């Protein structure tokens, strides 16, 4: 079983990739999408989204990171992929799922799910532009407004040369509304020969097990669920692999040092106006799983001053140390 961390623009960036891969259990990450329009992107754009390119395309914990591109023009995608390839990513993933209006209006992301032939052209152009040994994979939804073309789309990805397909089991129209339709994935799996990875609405070990059963996929991609419960990948491994991977529950006291590290990285690497919001965004998801995060979230919710938040994070860590004595 392979467990992948989902690309999530504005949420699961290099800061959280660092933190979550330190906690452990994930085999690979995918960067947030890098949007390709008509121009050749300078290296700094790739490096800004994926600073792991400066570290052999791995997080500091050593987990490989694949770079994701989004775009609909085969020539432009190929030229940018060739430049990106020179920076040495572990692989290149192509986004065919983004529901954002501005992206879809230009024919990118999920809009391409209406045009399997264009999908094949985009994947084929990227595949031809990068070294043969570099994996090129694709990530799709079940469709745009409905699922009518889902197998054609997956087959187009394979025909273009994708070596793996992640399926977020919802259409663009479904947005992020539960449920995810894991039971649709077997039809896609049976229509291609490359490995298919199941994704969508996996928040707990039980959901991971049900998703594997209904989708028939051994491999899963975890998104918001692992942000809310950083121990989720380890817990899924323990449940699936049994004795090979002993259960190692990640509790709040394990996470407090990670929250501190997260805040330090956010302050060092992100724009001042983004910082407080990023901490609150993570705590907001963590409180789904940890009652202590609810209290922490309420304490920090109205704060905006960086110095005060830093003092609060230090106090949180001290409180946790005392609690452990
Ligand atoms: C805030 C946010 C940003 C996302 N950004 C991306 C992205 O950059 N590329 C991509 O392929 N999918 C993106 N997704 C979709 C996720 O990778 C994933 O497919 C989706 O969240 C379903 O998985 P989950 O229910 O486990 O979160 C994003 C999702 C969210 C919530």
Automatic annotation (TrEMBL):
Its EC number is 1.3.1.-. It catalyses: 5,6-dihydrouridine(16) in tRNA + NAD(+) = uridine(16) in tRNA + NADH + H(+); 5,6-dihydrouridine(16) in tRNA + NADP(+) = uridine(16) in tRNA + NADPH + H(+). GO terms for molecular function: flavin adenine dinucleotide binding; FMN binding; tRNA binding; tRNA dihydrouridine synthase activity. Residues 4-307 form the DUS-like FMN-binding domain. InterPro entries: Aldolase_TIM, DUS-like_FMN-bd, DUS_fam, DusC, DusC_C, tRNA_hU_synthase_CS. Keywords: Flavoprotein, FMN, NADP, Nucleotide-binding, Oxidoreductase, RNA-binding, tRNA processing, tRNA-binding. Its cofactor is FMN. The record marks 35, 95, 176, 278, 280, 301 as: Interacts with tRNA. The active site is at residue 98. The keyword Nucleotide-binding applies. FMN binds at residues 68, 139, 168, 199-201, 223-224. It is an enzyme of class 1 (oxidoreductase). PANTHER family: TRNA-DIHYDROURIDINE SYNTHASE, TRNA-DIHYDROURIDINE(16) SYNTHASE. Catalyzes the synthesis of 5,6-dihydrouridine (D), a modified base found in the D-loop of most tRNAs, via the reduction of the C5-C6 double bond in target uridines. Specifically modifies U16 in tRNAs. HAMAP family: DusC_subfam. Belongs to the Dus family. DusC subfamily. Belongs to the dus family. This is tRNA-dihydrouridine(16) synthase. It comes from Delftia lacustris.
